[in-house]
Write a sequence for this structure.
């Protein structure tokens, strides 16, 4: 998996089904980085 810069993601707490859940949020540039890696076959 490609390395994302610290400003491309963050961990947040979301309320889901009445319980707190830790979730990773990815910025638009981070999503593009992951997309490029997927297209180039880096992620398998």
């Amino acid at each position: 998996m490609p390395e994302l810069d610290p400003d491309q993601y963050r961990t947040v707490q979301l309320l889901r089904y009445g319980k707190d859940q830790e979730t990773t949020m990815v910025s638009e540039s981070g999503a593009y980085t992951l997309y490029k890696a997927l297209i180039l076959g880096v992620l398998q």
About this structure: The mean pLDDT is 90.
